[in-house]
Write a structure and sequence with these properties.
- With 162 residues, this protein is mainly alpha-helical.
- Helix content is 72%, strand content 5%.
- Strands 1-2 form a two-stranded antiparallel ribbon.
- Strand 1 and strand 2 form a beta hairpin.
């Protein structure tokens, strides 16, 4: 019977220490904008995987708004825009991802594959081969496969085999 006050106190402490501070009755987030951007990126990517494109776009745009220098947020937002058929917006965010990334081979591969899908074969090959040749890329075969598919789309069979 005497454990109830202690359990109640623990529950109250936990309830009031879960990530926001109030000032004047309004919640104030305790994390940084960069942390909030990362959380929104993760949520947006999860929504994208589930096919909830509207929710994905909302969360990914929020991630970009919170951290303009996050290349993964821009690249994932670009992919979401591409899936809803907004190619110009997709291109803008892929280009921003390339610009702010630190020579990220995953982003190079994503952008190269996008360029191939939009018919820009020469630039696509440049980014795909750059990704494949990057020693930090864990799956260069993905970029080589994308380059091969791109060469096939342009009827360059010999290059596609290579």
């Amino acid at each position: 019977m005497t454990r109830w006050p202690g359990l109640l106190l623990c529950a109250l402490v936990l309830a009031f220490s879960t990530g926001c501070i109030t000032e004047g009755g309004k919640p104030k987030p305790t994390g940084s904008p960069r942390e909030a951007a990362a959380a929104n990126l993760n949520l947006g990517a999860a929504y994208l995987r589930k096919g909830d494109l509207e929710a994905a776009l909302t969360k990914l745009q929020k991630a970009v708004d919170l951290d303009e220098q996050n290349p993964q947020a821009h690249a994932t937002l670009a992919l979401a825009y591409e899936r809803v058929g907004l190619s110009d917006e997709a291109r803008q965010h892929y280009q921003k991802a390339i610009k702010v990334s630190d020579d990220d081979p995953v982003i190079d591969n994503m952008y190269g594959a996008y360029l191939c899908r939009t018919g820009d074969f020469n630039d696509a090959e440049t980014f795909l081969l750059k990704a494949a040749r990057n020693p930090r890329y864990r799956t260069p075969e993905a970029a080589y496969a994308n380059a091969g598919v791109c060469a096939l789309r342009e009827d360059r069979l010999d290059e596609a085999e290579g």
